[in-house]
């Protein structure tokens, strides 16, 4: 390793690894490749970056780099109920009650179970913990 670093430093003046020492060719990032990656994510926003990588036949890191450069990031889906104007007063009332409980019992919040593990619906349990979508 030190020999390779010394050779790169002598040849290029930098410690950055020389491309001929990596052992594989670097993928060329063409406009068509970028378009193929974006098309894959556009068609299926829930597709994994590894699946896109296999589809367009480029390294996984290239897919991540293209998505990041295009401003796309994995977004964790969180299902929530819609709020209506009538919901705000009870929410404020609950917040005030909770603060009053904290004044009486400073460790009150430690006795409350907060969880977002699953969403329970009439259709069954839907766990979205590992569901990510690119936006």
Q: Describe it for me?
A:
By secondary structure, the protein is mainly alpha-helical. The chain is built from five helices and four strands. Helix 2 packs across helix 3 and helix 3 crosses helix 4. The protein is elongated, with a radius of gyration of 25 Å. This is Transposase Tc1-like domain-containing protein.
In short:
The chain has 135 residues and is mainly alpha-helical.
Topology of helices and strands:
Layout (H helix, E strand, L loop, with lengths): L1 H11 L18 H13 L5 H8 L3 H10 L4 E3 L11 H17 L14 E3 L2 E3 L5 E3 L1
Antiparallel strand pairs: 1-4, 2-3
Spatial strand order of the main sheet: 1-4
Based on Cα principal axes, name the global outline. elongated
Would you list the SSEs in sequence order as H and E?
HHHHEHEEE
Assembly level: single chain
> Helical stretch count?
5
Low-confidence stretches: 20-25
Protein name: Transposase Tc1-like domain-containing protein
């Amino acid at each position: 390793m030190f020999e390779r670093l010394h050779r790169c430093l002598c040849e290029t003046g930098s410690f950055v690894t020389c491309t001929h020492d990596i052992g594989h060719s670097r993928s060329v990032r063409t406009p068509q490749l970028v378009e193929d990656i974006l098309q894959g994510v556009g068609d299926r926003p829930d597709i994994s970056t590894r699946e896109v990588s296999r589809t367009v036949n480029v390294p996984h890191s290239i897919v991540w780099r293209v998505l990041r450069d295009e401003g796309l990031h994995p977004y964790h889906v969180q299902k929530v109920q819609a709020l209506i104007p009538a919901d705000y007063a009870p929410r404020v009332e609950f917040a005030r009650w909770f603060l009053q409980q904290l004044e009486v019992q400073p460790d009150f919040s430690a006795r409350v179970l907060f969880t977002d593990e699953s969403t329970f619906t009439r259709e069954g349990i839907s766990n979205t913990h590992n569901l990510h979508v690119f936006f």
